[in-house]
Design brief:
Strand content: 5-15%
Structural class: alpha/beta
Largest sheet: 6 strands, parallel
Distance between the termini: 14 Å
Low-confidence stretches: 1-5, 305-318
Strand order of the largest sheet: 3-8-7-4-5-6
Helix content: 25-40%
Shape: globular
Number of domains: 1
């Protein structure tokens, strides 16, 4: 018998506050609003732990880490990052990255890990860009490489995960897949293992057809030990930086599609929030919430939720993992 509440769990960095200047375009409030909404619905939230500087050093260059740690980025680097520097931003970036490591670790133990932040896919080895200080996806993959030797990053944010693609370029065991806007930031794209650049205005049907074709095939082709999922909701119609036209129902269907494909193959899935910049922050929050609920529903359908670790699940039900 499934114990549904046992998978109603997520990591959140809401215990670390960052105050941005009035009118700043980054919607920092979405993280707290989403956490509050899920908690009210019965989710158990755990504070995201800090990642260690040693784990960051496996991905990022020492000079960059020293500048971030010392709140000493130069003016050009700070503009490229998009955030004003502060000690609070450093601490928040550590827990935002550590939460993804923890979510991947939980996924390897339980089948599903959820982090209500992360997906900072524009961070490179030597710099941050586009509101991304550290690349949590690659840091998590490196940190747990012994337990998950091959990882597929499924990046469905409207913006290409250029930092992730570059960091993974020479690693055959870190596979990158990105579906993004062809005419959107970053305007100079990196090269993922598979890129799908979609036109402005793409709707639910056009978008979902691409994902439904690609994701099962990639899972079968690469047989990853785990999937890191960047589920940005800046694909929805009305997002300030998106240019696509998906509905909230379409985002939920997208997330369910990814989760179903992984669950059917018993591949652990770790979810990160990614972007979302709708003019109404509550629309962004609802899109994230619906997507997370879709992930949860998919895993309940395939995995006995009370079973842990994952390696012991198959013995409990012939038609489950």
């Amino acid at each position: 018998m499934n114990d549904a509440p046992s998978l109603l769990h997520a990591f959140t960095p809401r215990h670390v506050r960052v105050e941005l200047p009035s009118g700043h375009r980054f919607p920092m409030t979405k993280y707290d609003l989403l956490a509050e909404r899920l908690q009210a619905e019965g989710w158990r939230l755990t504070p995201s732990p800090s990642v260690s500087w040693e784990r960051l050093a496996a991905v990022h260059e020492a000079t960059y880490l020293a500048a971030v740690r010392g709140v000493a980025l130069d003016a050009r680097a700070e503009r490229r990052l998009g955030f004003p520097q502060s000690p609070a931003l450093v601490t928040r970036s550590l827990v935002s990255t550590g939460g993804t490591v923890a979510a991947l670790e939980r996924a390897l133990e339980r089948g599903l890990g959820v982090h209500l932040a992360g997906g900072t896919h524009h961070a490179f080895a030597d710099r941050g860009e586009g509101f991304c200080v550290f690349n949590d996806l690659v840091v998590a993959a490196r940190a747990l490489q012994r337990r998950a030797p091959r990882i597929l990053v499924v990046d469905l944010d409207v913006h290409q995960g250029n930092g992730t693609a570059e960091l993974a370029h020479d690693d055959p065991d870190l596979v990158t897949y990105s579906v993004h806007g062809a005419r959107n930031y970053p305007f100079q794209k990196a090269r993922s293992d598979l890129d799908r650049a979609l036109p402005d205005g793409v709707d639910d049907d056009g978008y979902l057809a691409v994902v439904a074709s690609d994701v099962p095939r990639l899972l079968d082709q690469y047989a990853p030990t785990a999937v890191l999922y960047q589920g940005g909701v800046d694909v929805i119609d009305g997002d300030r930086f998106g240019r696509m036209a998906l509905t909230i129902d379409g985002v939920a269907a997208r997330d369910r599609l990814v989760a179903d494909a992984c669950a059917q193959r018993c591949i652990p899935l770790a979810y990160t929030l990614g972007g979302g910049y709708h003019r109404d922050v509550l629309v962004t929050v609802e899109a994230h919430r619906r997507g997370i609920e879709a992930l949860h529903a998919a895993w309940l359908a395939a995995w006995p939720a009370s079973a842990a670790p994952v390696t012991g699940v198959a013995s409990q039900a012939s038609d489950a993992c």
